[in-house]
Design goal:
The protein is α/β, with parallel strands linked by helices. It has one domain: Endonuclease, Chain A. The protein has a five-stranded mixed β-sheet, sandwiched between helices. Helix 3 links the parallel strand 3 and strand 4. The longest helix has 24 residues.
């Protein structure tokens, strides 16, 4: 398929896409702050410059765009038809960097949550489901959590790892 704009316009449009303080990031930060969690953002001294760092809970939250981080089996991720090799290489490199940062952080004792853009978009309709999942994880001891759209769709019927189940059952009946 041929692009509807010339290459200079497309380049200008792509260069305006932000890498930090994005709308999904601001939404999650707002949710966390409203729940009383305090955090740091974009710590340069940590691998991957995590979007949100909660030192008190030894927890890190990455907020990934489904396209830029290649979220497999997601409705928001579709490889562009033009310059396919370029985009495959770029997204693969992003995924490699994500894995390296995650390994380094886990080996340093950090807990990691990855929230995908599709989950955040879904949670705009029901932010309580996302915050229940995130709060339960933060207060628990599970090392890894990945929140995507199917998890949000299940709402309160989510099957979390056994160490995260406490606290969720009391809110499930509401």
């Amino acid at each position: 398929m041929v692009d509807i704009v010339d290459s200079a316009t497309r380049s200008r449009m792509m260069s305006n896409i932000k890498g930090r303080n994005t709308k999904p990031e601001l939404l999650i930060r707002s949710f966390l702050h409203a729940q009383g969690f305090r955090f740091r953002i974009h710590r340069k001294d940590l691998p991957g410059k995590p979007d949100i760092v909660l030192p008190k809970y030894k927890a890190i939250i990455f907020i990934h765009g489904c396209f830029w981080h290649g979220h497999q089996n997601c409705r928001l991720f579709k490889l562009p038809a033009s310059r396919t090799e370029f985009w495959e290489a770029k997204i693969s490199k992003n995924q490699e960097n994500d894995l390296k940062a995650k390994d380094l952080l886990l080996n340093s004792g950090w807990r990691i949550c990855t929230i995908w853009e599709c989950a955040i978009r879904r949670s705009k309709k029901d932010p309580v489901a996302l915050m229940d999942i995130l709060t339960t994880w933060l207060l628990g001891s599970e090392r890894l959590l990945e929140i995507d759209e199917p998890m949000i769709n299940k709402k309160r019927e989510i099957t979390l790892p056994s160490s995260c189940e406490t606290g969720l059952s009391s809110t499930a009946s509401n």
